[in-house]
Amino acid sequence: MTWLDASGGYQVRLDDRGKVVCRNAKGKQLATVPAALKEDGQVVQLRQLAEWLGRHETECHETVDRWMVRSLPVPTVVVVEVWPDPAWRNALRDLVVTVDDTAVFRRHIRVITAVWGTGFTVDTFVSAALAYTLPINAIPVASTAQWLVVLGCLILFHVWYVNKHGLKV
Length: 169
Hints:
Strand order of the largest sheet: 1-2-3
């Protein structure tokens, strides 16, 4: 930001951290803004600008946080439009941009969930049938063997399906 003329031959500006800094007529930067300049119009406006910039940066970060927490898709045109603003650029830096193929991914997750649910439902009915047909002392062995077979089949299906469709889960 450029130096602005203030009363008494001083010049003021905002530094990189958003703090009002002052220099005297000789060009030497002062450690603090002189008390006589505290109510100068330029200093007051710079302080108000610094406050607004702080609020703006906070709003940018909060907006990006809402996008992330809610998993909201953000159109590329929005990112392109806000990118020139340093506050937005700072809030958006290091984020990952992906293609919106969530509908396809959700469909695959539904298929996997349905297969696992069906597998467990079948396991329940087979367990009930075994409980009524086998002698009581054979149930623990049969139940354990059945569980391992069902679980093995479900895991094999899961691995096959994920690899076949290239899912990154």
